[in-house]
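2024-03-11 09:14:02 INFO receiving multi-entity request
2024-03-11 09:14:02 INFO entity count = four
2024-03-11 09:14:03 INFO echoing inputs for audit
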Amino acid sequence: MIDESISPLAPMLRKLDERRTLSAADHEAVLALPHRLETIPAHRSVVREGEVATHSCLLRSGIAFRQKVTGDGKRQICSIHLSGDMVDLQNSLLWVADHSVVALTPIKVAFIPREAILDLSFAHRSVGEAMWFDTLVDGSVFREWLTSAGQRNARTRVAHLLCEFGLRFEQAGLGTASNYELPMSQEFLGDCTGLTAVHVNRMLRSLKDEGLLTMTKGWVKILDWAGLAKAGEFDRLYLHLPENQKAAFRKP
Amino acid sequence: MIDESISPLAPMLRKLDERRTLSAADHEAVLALPHRLETIPAHRSVVREGEVATHSCLLRSGIAFRQKVTGDGKRQICSIHLSGDMVDLQNSLLWVADHSVVALTPIKVAFIPREAILDLSFAHRSVGEAMWFDTLVDGSVFREWLTSAGQRNARTRVAHLLCEFGLRFEQAGLGTASNYELPMSQEFLGDCTGLTAVHVNRMLRSLKDEGLLTMTKGWVKILDWAGLAKAGEFDRLYLHLPENQKAAFRKP
DNA sequence: CGCTCAGTTGAACCCGCTCAAGCTGCGTGG
DNA sequence: CCACGCAGCTTGAGCGGGTTCAACTGAGCG
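2024-03-11 09:21:47 INFO inference complete, emitting structure
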């Protein structure tokens, strides 16, 4: 197991290592990445839409999210990110940011120059694959959210989101899939799902009334995972969780 | 310029070359990729959700699209793809397909083993970067579609989609941004935008009535690009078109 | 000619939005 | 200790954008 105290980049290593088996040399190379540590307060943005992103940003702790803002000021949250996520590969590799990355809670980050990321990726194939695949999983989540926003009704969307968050938080070592702390307002959940805060509230009430979950002081407890998953049409396949993926890669 | 007659993989080379300047060795390596050619009729799927995708699929001609189907049978189109696109990198690299890829028109494809793609990418960094970045652009388009589905009203969504298609078709050498052939039913456009065919019809009528465009026999003519772009809140940044990107990379 | 599929239009309906009011919990300062 | 303010949660009532259902039109095709 990788000790967090070894290096500020340890969360990154942990995540890459889940996705691909890395050699000692790979480990060393990752930890040797040049970086600048920073703490960013809640609500402050890491990168803004339209800016040139020269650095990529490793999230070491806290929660961040991606957002896009429409012409008339409405906000769409595109995904959330937890410890270990390379939260701005998308923007920095594409040069001009097409969306913003914002801190939901206070976060600790490490900025890494994009060239260093690319050099590392192509010098160490396993690392490169793990990183590339991570960006593909991001894409898969975007597709799922798009499908929710486009095709599912409000109740299903909310239930789906809470299932996803459960698995994501558990994977990142923050609670369990059915019991986790979620520091998000209903307004925020609305911007994730394309609903208003008022309607999110009503859908949560409906789910609570059916005994599927409780929410108190920012803690979500899912009382009936199977029931909530059914209500949310939730199938974890799209998350491409590492355990499944690595298993698949051992086969051939 | 790259001659299509050299190899069936020429469209791929053209596209990669737009994104990164490739050496002669890079060219050779791309064209040397093992592949199996196939022609697929309209409506037939290339990969189905849940299948293991061992091959990646280069689209040589025709139009393909990605779709996800919800529990109650509704369909979300996630993106469309044109000549030169590696239409199934997302699925094949992630192993188990989380969405389907379907032929909209009859298409010509070349199936390439995923291992060959990966070997090439990591042996030839420019090729690898071009390919990785292409998957990131796909992600950017997903985010934009998500934003449309979640936050924009029906009229804006339809106008936005037609602007995007214009630029995509022009980029692929199929017509111009304001005059292109679009072999899609209104039902299909509805599944792209999360609307019903009936409402797509009404929104198109509204856009036509304002003199922004005409649609006859599958040909879209945009009479007032600026007007349509405004109606659709359209900003091309998210497409990360090669000309802008390559220019950015010459700078540093 | 008759079939089918896509486009078109109207009318009624309903899911989710908007507006508005009241509530709850909590931090701040007197 | 309470008073105050503020942000987020809750609930109700009415509205409206988009859906649903249905009928008709027109083009392509065997």
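2024-03-11 09:21:48 INFO post-check: The first strand of chain A starts at residue 36 and ends at 40.
2024-03-11 09:21:48 INFO post-check: DSSP finds ten helices and ten strands in chain A.
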